[in-house]
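ARCHIVE CARD
CATEGORY: sequence design from structure
SOURCE FIELD: tokenized fold
FIELD CONTENT:
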């Protein structure tokens, strides 16, 4: 069965165009997308009719018009979108126009540029997969166009098509040999260039802020972008508090971060929880760690108050660092006692009914624990509910939450609870961070999104130390509102698999920066210097042995497929050795056997040739009996000499 070469080239050209342009669709404006879809449809209709639907001059004029339209939009602040839009339009124009080898080569080249330009927006594993698909398609397309250039009417059968596909797959594989050489040394960016340029102008804010101010927004998004991933052992849901900032000062019901420094004390005998945090780019300088973090490995980070850390500047790159944290329950005495005057201070301008409620707990109970229990009991008994929508706003939002709506999110719960504890003369502060996360079993990490930003309370009791209390857990709908463990259905598991692949790609490729390059070089150098000479000799010998075995296996496989070790080849080599030695004549090919017999005029040579050729010319192999007869002829002549 023969296949039409022109049809194969057409299918390959459209496939290359789609692979090159589709990754740009989420990023380019609507007009280039419509032009490309129209170009594909018009190109297919023209191919079926046998001539282009749009005349060449009209197509050229339209392409030039769109080119200049997008060229006028090019600027220092918008350098990318006009260029990729032009690429999409040019691919569409090539599909609509006349189809010849030159046009197909141009279309393939522009599609390759389009796919490369998609890396300006996305450096994820999808780009690598599409590039891995594009390269074999291009290689096969070049082979097919070469056939067509030699003979327009050529047709391929299935074996020939399989060879073309094999060539298309093998050519990109040869480039993999260079990957181990260039990957460790070539520089790379951790983010797509366009994302970097956009964030240079203004980074997007994270779910955490430098202040806690209830009433700033009427709703809080329920879904958010990725904040960070944390490699860690799997922990109980109650342990998943990720510490970011501490807010001790309050002014006009707005909580502000600390200004002093307070270190964390840990016992060397305590078993710490290790995490590797990969934070997404953003404007926040906070370094996140499992509550309560003891140490951070980030070299440029600075210690901040109450077991929090900051990086020097906001970053448009992914940040990867290590954290060590105390187990839950072991951090109550790890932080020093508070400044009582600072952490019991109340705003001077509290509204009257809020001030009355706050101070009513000061006289309840004879100990810190009793006053804490009284505030907790009041909160639990007043049917507060957790909500992300319909939140109170304005200057009196906290009053509305406590006395009227009794519905709010974590900032309302934590702020109100902390005020009541301070009214009870208990040193109290707010802690901001994240709560929970989805554990990815495949990757061994937690995935935490911005909508999990959370605020809770730390209170100091004289005989117990610092206690973490989450007032949001007092809500009547706390289990539903705070998430808990989400059920993993098939769709969620598929997303976790893709997320694990993306995380592996980011960790192994995207965030492999210059510092890690130097780290690999230094570690390799240190290992080589400490490697014993005796082990080096053993390793060298083992390497030579392995290489020899591999080469031997390749040699045997190659010559075995070529028939070098078959009976026919072995006996023919012995025959040539005899005729060369005795007559000075060698058979260059099986077709020259009878020529050798004629030139030597030897009876035994004639007998050998007739038996050998009679078998092979019938397109069969030598039997054991025939092989033995040929050996006898050669051995008899050897004994005779």
């Amino acid at each position: 069965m023969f296949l039409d070469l022109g049809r194969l080239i057409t299918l390959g050209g459209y496939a290359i165009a789609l692979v090159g342009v589709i990754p740009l669709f989420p990023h380019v404006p609507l007009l280039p997308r419509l032009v490309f879809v129209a170009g594909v449809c018009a190109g297919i209709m023209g191919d079926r009719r046998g001539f282009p639907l749009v005349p060449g001059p009209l197509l050229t004029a339209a392409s030039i018009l769109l080119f200049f339209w997008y060229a006028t939009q090019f600027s220092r602040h918008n350098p990318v979108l006009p260029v990729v839009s032009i690429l999409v339009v040019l691919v569409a124009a090539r599909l609509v126009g006349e189809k010849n080898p030159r046009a197909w080569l141009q279309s393939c080249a522009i599609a390759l540029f389009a796919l490369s330009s998609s890396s300006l927006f996305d450096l994820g594993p999808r780009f690598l997969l599409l590039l891995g698909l594009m390269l074999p398609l291009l290689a096969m397309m070049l082979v097919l166009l070469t056939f067509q250039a030699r003979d327009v009417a050529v047709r391929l059968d299935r074996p020939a098509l399989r060879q073309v596909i094999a060539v298309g797959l093998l050519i990109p594989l040869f480039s993999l040999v260079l990957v181990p050489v260039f990957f460790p040394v070539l520089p790379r960016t951790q983010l797509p260039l366009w994302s970097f340029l956009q964030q240079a102008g203004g980074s997007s804010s994270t779910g955490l802020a430098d202040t806690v101010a209830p009433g700033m927004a009427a709703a809080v998004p329920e879904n958010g972008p990725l904040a960070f991933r944390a490699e860690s052992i799997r922990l109980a849901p109650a342990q998943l508090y990720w510490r970011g900032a501490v807010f001790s000062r309050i002014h006009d019901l707005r909580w502000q971060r600390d200004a002093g420094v307070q270190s964390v004390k840990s016992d060397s005998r305590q078993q710490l929880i290790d995490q590797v945090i990969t934070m997404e780019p953003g404007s926040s300088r906070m370094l996140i760690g499992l509550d309560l973090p003891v140490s951070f490995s980030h070299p440029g980070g600075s210690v901040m108050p109450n077991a929090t850390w900051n990086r020097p500047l906001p970053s448009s790159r992914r940040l990867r660092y290590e954290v060590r944290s105390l187990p839950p329950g072991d951090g109550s005495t790890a932080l020093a006692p508070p400044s009582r005057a600072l952490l019991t201070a109340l705003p001077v301008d509290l509204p009257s009914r809020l001030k009355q409620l706050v101070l009513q707990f000061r006289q309840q109970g004879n100990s810190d624990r009793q006053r804490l229990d009284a505030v907790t009991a009041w909160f639990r008994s007043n049917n507060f509910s957790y909500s992300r929508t319909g939140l109170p706003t304005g200057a009196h939002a906290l009053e509305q939450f406590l006395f009227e709506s009794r519905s709010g999110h974590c900032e309302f719960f934590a702020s109100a609870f902390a005020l009541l504890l301070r009214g009870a003369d208990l040193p109290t502060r707010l802690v901001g961070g994240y709560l929970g996360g989805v554990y990815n079993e495949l990757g061994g990490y937690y995935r935490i999104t911005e909508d999990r930003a959370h605020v809770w309370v730390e209170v100091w009791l004289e005989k117990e130390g610092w206690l973490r209390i989450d007032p949001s857990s007092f809500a009547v709908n706390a289990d539903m509102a705070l998430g808990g463990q989400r059920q993993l259905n098939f769709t969620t598991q598929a997303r976790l698999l893709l997320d694990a692949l993306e995380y592996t790609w980011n960790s192994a490729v995207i965030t492999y920066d210059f510092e890690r390059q130097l780290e690999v070089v230094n570690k390799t150098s240190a290992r080589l210097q400490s490697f014993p000479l005796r082990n080096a000799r053993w390793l060298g010998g083992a390497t030579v042995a392995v290489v020899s075995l591999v080469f031997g296996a390749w040699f045997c496989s190659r010559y075995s497929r070529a028939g070098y070790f078959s009976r026919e080849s072995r006996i023919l080599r012995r025959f040539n050795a005899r005729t060369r030695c005795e007559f000075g004549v060698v058979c260059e090919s099986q077709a020259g056997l009878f020529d050798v017999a004629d030139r030597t005029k030897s009876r035994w040579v004639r007998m050998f040739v007739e038996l050998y050729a009679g078998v092979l010319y019938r397109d069969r192999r030598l039997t054991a009996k025939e092989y033995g007869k040929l050996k006898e002829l050669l051995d008899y002549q050897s004994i005779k000499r």
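CARD ANNOTATION: The CA atoms of residues 261 and 304 lie 6 Å apart. Confidence is low (pLDDT under 50) at residues 196-206.
SHELF: design records, drawer C
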